[in-house]
Amino acid sequence: MPRTTVAGPRRRPAILLATAAASLAVGVAGCGSSDSSSSAQPSPSASASVSASATAGVLGIQDPWVKAADKGMTAAFGTLVNDGDTDVTITAAATDVSPMELHEMTMKDGKMVMQPKQGGIVVKAHSSTVLQPGGEHLMLMDLKQPVKAGDELTFTLTFADGKTQTFTAVAKPFTGAQESYAPDHGQPAA
Which pTM does this prediction carry? Predict the structure, then answer.
């Protein structure tokens, strides 16, 4: 009897549980907002649950998604998994629909502000880093075209050692943090 027949029924609940947990973690963290209602979270989607193993790329990328936007700025999120023995630093990101920057949210003069992430995004060895609203994220600047819910965007990450890795993320509507990315990298508008 094939091995997949035996393992298949046991793996499906674990995959669904992992996808639900990752979606919950992303939705709860929304840019300092206390709104955690289920209607504010992006819905789990099979196409959004992409994972690259360490053998296929530098990092595993779980549940990548992009906030849908008609114009201006938006951001990409997900969980970066480093199964390797050394820390990995992302130094740049690129996509065809806009220029990009690596961003973080931080406190400045008593306010939460968005700013470029100096030194890149570090994913520690045998660890993971969550890119999320209200935290580190991949910022799409000056969109050349609308990013509609359901669109799939391709991203290329560049690492400190010069390696690159490509992944695809699905666009989803997201209102949980009531954020609107302002071009001045300041606090998201209410």
Answer: 0.67
